[in-house]
Amino acid sequence: MPSARVRLSLMSLMVGASVLASGCDSAAKQDKPAAEVKKAEAVKTEPVEAVQPEEPKLAAVLADRATASSAKRSPEAAAIMQAAEDQLAASDILERAINVGDVAPTFTLPNAAGEQVSLAKLLEKGPVAVLWYRGGWCPYCNLTLAGYAAAGKQITEAGGTLVAISPELPDNSLDTQQKNELEYQVLSDVGNAVAKQFEIVFELPPDLAKMYNEKFSLNTRNGDTSNSLPLAATYVIGQDGKVAWAFLDADYKKRAEPSEVVAQVRALAGAEHPPG
Q: Of 130, 147, 177, 203, which has the fewest Cβ atoms less than 10 A away?
């Protein structure tokens, strides 16, 4: 039978082994989280592809501009402009205007370089999107023209053409094109001759005409004294010469969304030129 001293020694060895084993387990437990932390840190340092923010919709950009302009406008000017807008909305211009299903009036107009651009020739290539704007003096028009920069490229890639038309003289159209760095063509419809065929022309009330001439030199820029402007209308015309899609609004602060126009051109181009 082992002596008390031997038994004590054996117990001491057993306790030591237990402590050693416990220490190893603790070290293993501590090492595991450390490895996981290192792994997590490695994951965090991997490059992450940057997410490009979406371009704001044109409607939101124009709404912000309207809010800012309204805050600066005098009560007298606001009343004149609102009365003119209400008068136009109450007219029958939206009912008379060329619309979906109508044959689009053909036209040939000079671009900013003085070259003649024919709708018929453009339609030989594919659908045509026609964007009317009031003039380079109009801040909403400049925002719209700039907002269509990417859309113009997308429309071209789809096999279509985008043109913008205003009643301004060619020199002023050139200035507008250069200022907004536009790659699509800007055409000059002096006297609103083509816009009248589309039946989207209206005459400004005398008090608003006076305001626009004093502030923007409207008659000088347009080369006439008609005090007339086109609606800020947009049309998508198919190769059959008919209007496939139209945007018409009496409120000049509202414009066709570029993405919608691109979608219409793409759909029309696909239908007119099916694969195979």
A: 203
Instruction: Enumerate the H helices of 158-192 as residue ranges.
Output: 170-179
| Torsion angle of C-alpha atoms 70, 227, 145, 215, degrees rounded to 10 | -50
d(CA 244, CA 104): 10
Distance CA 172, CA 206 (A): 24
**Which residues make Cβ contacts (< 8 Å) with residue 178, sequence separation at least 6?**
112
Residue 15 in this model has a pLDDT that exceeds 90: no
Residue 43: what pLDDT? 43
CB atoms near residue 210 (< 10 Å):
14
Instruction: Pull the structure tokens for residue 238.
Output: 């198919």
What mean pLDDT is predicted for residues 99-111? 97
pLDDT at 164 over 50: yes
Cα separation, 143 vs 139, in Å, equals 6
Amino acid making up residue 19: V
Judged by DSSP in three states, 185 sits in strand
> What is the pLDDT, as a whole number, of residue 22?
46
The pLDDT score that the predictor gives to residue 172 is 75
More confident residue, 37 or 113: 113
* Full-model pTM: 0.78
Query: Is 153:173 a contact under the CB 8 Å cutoff?
Result: no
State which amino acid sits at residue 176: T
Which pLDDT belongs to residue 28? 41
Q: How many CB atoms lie within 10 A of CB 197?
A: 15
Residue 110: name the closest of 222, 188, 182, 221 by CA: 188
